[in-house]
């Protein structure tokens, strides 16, 4: 449940924003430094944000910067060509590139009602394979404490995941198929990617007016929320009408391959048993081999078998549960 927002012009907005999105990441980063977790929480919104509270700044300035080393840059094409030879069906689709975020009080005194603005550029699957999934992916990193600077040469497509809670208080997870490209056989939350083409975007449009830019940003922001509903429906087979409106709870980045993913929370009016029945007819059921509806304690035990970004998603969910207890 999202709490009522203060007046955007009120001085209380800054403290509200800090509570919603800024305080927890700094604590999490300290914990990560101490324990070397396989993920980093880039943004945490423990009370959950609705679509009106999340905006997007989609701009060419957030695209990947080519690596200055010619050999590293050329390896992108070499790796992709080798992959194509092994699997001619690979498709080089467009993806949104995550390049950080900002808070309203950091954006020239804006009175926009949104509490978080995501900075997104454009990338593609080919560049992801050649940078983040490159065997020498660490060569693409820049020594910096500033995350967008550190990852400026990587594709960093923004994935998404949903923590779906059943009517009998179970959490839905999937075991990935052995045929998928990343982390076969691992447990994951339902998810995938927001898709630029679903928002009508195939490239950046130079020379667009301010009104046109705002319209594009709005479409991309809507796709952030619409895509996670679409992914859940396609992967576990439940009807969209059985799901609550998604709440954005933050962004986790896997330390291996510096892979970012946005996470959302949704409740479902169906029981674990009913969802199992829906799963048998899921459109994208081939991407996973099993659906499990587990308790929080059971999920704690299985979390070690999750990719780092999804383990971070679980951490974001637990922060949300803690925040709800406090409120």
Task: Write a concise keyword list for the protein shown above.
327 residues; alpha+beta; Nucleoside Triphosphate Pyrophosphohydrolase; 5-stranded mixed beta sheet; 3-stranded mixed beta sheet; 23% strand; globular; disordered N terminus
The assembly state of the depicted protein chains is single chain
Distance between the termini: 11 Å
Q: What would CATH call the architecture?
A: Alpha-Beta Complex
DSSP, total strands: 11
Give the biggest beta sheet: 5 strands, mixed
Based on CA inertia axes, which overall geometry fits?
globular
Which class best fits the helix and strand makeup? alpha+beta
CATH class descriptor:
Alpha Beta
- CATH homology-level superfamily: Nucleoside Triphosphate Pyrophosphohydrolase
Residue share in β-strands? 15-25%
Q: Strands across the major sheet, in which order?
A: 1-9-10-5-8
What Rg is obtained from the alpha carbons, in whole angstroms? 19 Å
Mean pLDDT metric: 88
Helix proportion of residues, in percent? 25-40%
Order of helices and strands: HEEHEEHHEEEEHEEHEHH
Count every helix, treating DSSP H or I runs of 4 or more residues as helices. Answer: 8
Please name the CATH topology.
Nucleoside Triphosphate Pyrophosphohydrolase
Whole-number count of domains: 1
Low confidence ranges: 1-18, 21-34
GO molecular function, one term: metal ion binding
Keywords: Hydrolase, Magnesium, Metal-binding
Cofactor: Mg(2+)
Domain Nudix hydrolase: 155-322
